[in-house]
Every structure is written in C-alpha cells, then in structure tokens.
Amino acid sequence: MDRRPNIPTIIGGGRVLWYTRIDERHVPRKEAAAVPYGLAICDLEGSGIFLFTCADDWMPVFDSWHETVLGAKRQAAFEFEGVESTWEQPPV
Description:
By secondary structure, the protein is mostly beta strands. The protein has one domain. 12% of the residues lie in helices and 38% in strands.
C-alpha cells in the first residue's frame, strides 16, 4: 500500500509542513462519527500553525490553532494513537 498520497503544497490557505494519512497504524483516542483521511500541519504566515483534519481530497474538515509545530503534533497525538511515528514532510 502506497502511504505517500498526492499531498497538496497548500491546505486551508497554509503551506504544508507535515502530514500523515490516517490508516491502520492509528487508533482514534475518542469515538468519532468518521475517521479522517489524514492530518496536515500547516503554516499560515502571520496567523500561526494549524492542525487540519482532512477529508479524502485533503480538504480541511476541522482545524486547531497552535503556536508551534510541536504543539500541533502533541494535539494530533492526543487525538490519534500512533501518529507520532507517521508524520512525513511533503516532497519539495
């Protein structure tokens, strides 16, 4: 299974810094109506760092604001077990 999806360079108006597909490697820590396709950490210059929960077309469904990338990664780890080891940087 190819784990490197076609990731856009911009999501929610911000430059993608890190992303991960949500798949069998991850366990949601709370019950959700639907498991998202992926998570993306983006830099919205002048607005901060955002963690986007995305649908299968990488369109943001939910977001949270963070001061740092580390803060966004911690929030993702709070929401999904296993995400700490699956972050990837988009190809340049």
